[in-house]
Amino acid sequence: MRRTSAIAVATMTAAALTLTACGRDSGGGDAAAETGKEISAGKATGTITVWAMGAEGEKLPALAKDFEAANPGAKVNVTAIPWDAAHDKFTTAITAGKTPDAAMVGTTWMGEFAGLDALDPTPKSIDTTQFFEGAQNTTKVGDTSYGIPWYVETRLVYYRTDLAEKAGFTEAPKTWEELKAMAKGMQDKAGAKYGIGLQAGGTGSWQTVMPFAWSNGAKLTTDDGKGYNFDSPEIKEAVEYYKSYFDEGIADKAAPATPTTEPDFASGKVPMFISGPWMMSAVEKVGGEGFKDKYAVAPMPTKKTSSSFVGGSDFVVFKNSKQRDTAWKFVQFLADPKTQAKWYTQSTDLPSVQTAWQDPSISADKKLAVFGEQLKTAQAPPSFATWEQVVAQFDTELEKVTKQGSDPGAALKAVQSQAESIGTGQ
């Protein structure tokens, strides 16, 4: 998912195509924290099976050779799985008791798989404080961590600096008001057809809206993390703000289902959008030589704070692994800062371990540094097993708001009612 086009960056849903983060706002229930038994000392031995999805599944075998070189008695067999088949493959394997030893897991699945008692809790010897807090929270169900956040991403505002300057703006927008003013300014004075590209509801649109809600101080759970909280004043204000872009013609309510983000950004037709780090190479490829100097990225604009969506993927060990220690040693290897930096050079997946960002391959890039700063405050939705089902209703209601002008308050009450009816699945 992380390499899909920007405005519809979240077009994968409950059918298990989603690679989004799914941590918690807070405790998430009364479950007592649990930690896995400690890992044995010494080199890893034996053969483990590992599943990984998409491009990561294709590239992981090369990285695993480093682990095998450091542990001559160990062998890592990686199976690459298409994202569209992964969820069903995992649930079938869990039911049959035939899971791999370790696996990359889409983080919206963590609550479901932990609820099936399939995951091994993280041992205390793995330092969870080394990860970005929002990313670490994606591994937690209740108060228990399962696995590690393997890699991360977050969303920033991309904007054309040359067109912004033509419209009279020489600095990045820092507030909600400044963001809208810049978008409108580039539309009025720099030839843009639309000031900013925003997803007009539909599948995955919650991922673009929620950064505004979080920046307005919103919490997605209530009752100490036991229930949903969609109809709060903070979320309502964020949806009203989001809606205003479509009402005022600054964003296109009839944007195509298949995004045209890169060419629209390169041409200046739509000189702003919100997306993740993978879009840097995408827009530069379309924009051609020198285009990287014509745009910048900025943190999500502040209302009460600046926050964004944290995504990426977790890596877990399954409870029925017959090679548990070797599986966890492989996970430890993946969390090593040097491994994380090397993985970035091979995959462009951003490190979840904060110290890995000091590696020159990452620290030398000023745009990446902005992503690193945003990750410090980025958040994720609650790890409820029903999240995907509930948020599909949010996407549906948001489309009514942006395209039909429906009342945001009524839309959020409908989402909350549906969420309470479905429950959290805890």
UniProtKB/TrEMBL annotation:
Keyword Transport present in the record's keywords: the answer is yes
Write out the ranges of the annotated region (Disordered): 402-426
Signal peptide per UniProt? 1-21
Domain of life per record: Bacteria
Provide this UniProt record's keywords sorted from A to Z: Signal, Transport
Q: Which InterPro entries match?
A: SBP (IPR006059)
Give one Pfam family, short name only.
SBP_bac_1
What Gene3D superfamilies does its record include? Periplasmic binding protein-like II (3.40.190.10)
Sequence ranges of Polar residues compositional bias = 415-426
Q: Which family does it belong to?
A: Belongs to the bacterial solute-binding protein 1 family.
Protein's recorded name? Sugar ABC transporter substrate-binding protein
Query: Native species of this protein?
Result: Pedococcus aerophilus
